[in-house]
Amino acid sequence: MRSTGSHRSHGKIGADAAVGPIQRSSGLAEEVYDAIFSQLMALRIAPGSRITVDNLVRELNVSQTPIREALGRLEGEGLVVKTHLVGYSAAPQITRRRFDELYELRLLLEPDATRRTAHRIDADGLAALRGTAGVMMQPDAADERARYSTFARQDAVFHDTILAIAGNELIRETLAHQHTHFHIFRLMFHTRVTEEALDEHDAILAAFENRDEQAAEQAMRRHIERSRDRLLPAFD
Ligand SMILES: [Zn+2]
């Protein structure tokens, strides 16, 4: 956290042990979540390593409450594991087998869904996707790790939006449940992973603009295959 001002703990002193709703309006919970998410994505918290609440309290200079909430949310996203009597740790890296299975699943579902999206997409959908792609392009040289974790999240949003427009909620839920993008971006921390994907997303957007179903399907297939090839060296 940048600020260590007392306003951050306002209303929270002594509240950690209390039973009750966690304050969500302050934005603090979101900020703490983002900070830990970013460390996990950029491998500053190594896969499999212990995460102690006390360390995070010191490092982020906030109370336990937002940290526990963030860790619970990250647990739901498969990035953090909570073990009885041991506590929290960063989820281990996905295995090569799991990686292959994830990409096989994506290649079965996403190109076909993308073809349907090209048929169904309207101006609002196109604007939403362009907006997401735009966030991914914004350079933030000041903090490469924050940029990387933002990219991972926006990539998840980009692909989820395409699936939402395609219209099959079960396919969308199935892929969302895998938290694919969080796991694959955590395999390595490298700017090449993000730069090449931008061009591939552009090709998908261009096909949507032209309502070209076949080009959209092909562009998504190529994007997923290239993404797989970019990340495979993580297993060497
Ligand atoms: Zn992508």
Description:
By secondary structure, the chain is mainly alpha-helical. Helix content is 64%, strand content 4%. The protein has helices spanning 28-41, 53-60, 64-76, 96-120, 123-137, 144-166, 169-178, 180-185, 191-209, 213-231; strands spanning 50-51, 80-83, 87-90. The chain has a three-stranded antiparallel beta sheet. Strand 2 and strand 3 (87-90) form a beta hairpin. Helix 1 packs across helix 3 (64-76).
Please state the overall shape, judged from the principal axes of the Cα atoms: globular
Radius of gyration: 19 Å
Helical content band: 55-70%
Strand content: under 5%
Total helical elements: 10
DSSP summary, beta strand count: 3
- N-C termini distance: 35 Å
List keywords for this structure.
236 residues, mainly alpha, three-stranded antiparallel β-sheet, 10 helices, 4% strand, disordered N terminus, binds zinc ion
